[in-house]
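cron nightly-structures :: item 1 of 1
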Amino acid sequence: MGGGTRAWARGTMFSATVLAAVVLASAVVGRPAATAAASPPVAAPDPCGPAWTTGWQASPQAVVPPARLAGRTLRMIVRPQVGGAQVRVRLSNRFGRAPLPIGRVTLARAGAGPALVPGTVRAVTFGAVPAGASADPVLPPGADVVSDPVPVAAEAGRPLAVSLVLPQAPAVVAEHPVALQTSYLSAPGDATLDAGGGAFTTPVASWMVLTGVEVLAPHPVNAVVAMGDSLVDGVGSGNDTDSRFTDALSARLVRRGGTATMAVLNAGIARNELLAGRGPAGGDTPVERLGPEAVGLPGATDVVLHVGTNDVAAGRGAAEIVAGLVRFADTARAAGLRVHLTTITPSDRGVRGTSRGRAVRERVNRWVREHGAEHADGVFDFAGAVADPADPRRLRARYDAGDGLHLSAAGYRALAEAVDLTRLSGSPCLAGRSPARVALAAR
């Protein structure tokens, strides 16, 4: 595929050796002899000029979709965290074993519900199209594909709508099931140009095929990827409230402004485990997801890992979990990312609340607090931030979403407050620039 299209294979595992190759610089083995007529000097590009960065992403799982998708239009609502005059859309067939044809794709600024802001609908294209050929994209099996730039103005926190037609229901679709954001499915037909939204009769609670939005920012904006399980995904925070941990951390960074500003990208998957991939039931492991969901993202410089409670529930031992944390951290750092480890938040329910479950969690947390910095650039005590002061083995009541495991909006804000912002990379090119000037705004 040509033009503005980028694609990369999913792969099955990103080891430290493989990821290190991403950042390995080539050695200069020699240079040609000087010539009589020297070439005129070439001005170096402005390192703080316009740059693409990832403004939004969702982590997909391999899901068998309902047959009713065939011949209908999905309208998915997302909120980018970076502003700019052009946008690129990332679609995924990461888990497919066959090419995935896509019908017309459009991008617009979202209005209320499934409606679009009038006059903002733009076609999304995927590379040069030979004369006489269909402009509709076909996603190769095992690949993510990025569109050409689309002239739609993005503002941080203001929703965009990506509409796409699925001519046929694939055997497997890349889907993020716990979006906590309402999207929409149309009646049969191509409704990508329907600005009023009347054709979209069915609410959808997931994002399908769409896995990322990139924005051309006026100045480089770095991004921190939060990776982990349902506590990163935001379960317990409420639908359409934008009150996940990542939303709260983004709000903190926007308030700080200047060089502290970063996009905060959510790579959480409900039921995700550090040590075992769970496919449709919990996604690939964090180390398997590092390549496409952190290393491969424009602008990504940092990753915060919050995972482990599901490994405790699965009966894993503390030594196994610690070894998995070390492997993740070493692999990510070898690929050039700054890594931040967190303690496992408490729970007094089920297996997590047994004497063995508590002992495993406490041993892991002790290691993170005492030795995590030997492998990471930052260590954040999430457990201490939300534990009940009267009994640290359980959540504080106002931080508990009601099941003894997941957090309320207040609990996710407490996690965000536990992040030492000075440990993050920030965005050095934003020194002296207000958030408004770089088109960043609070949610």
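cron nightly-structures :: done
The radius of gyration is 22 Å.
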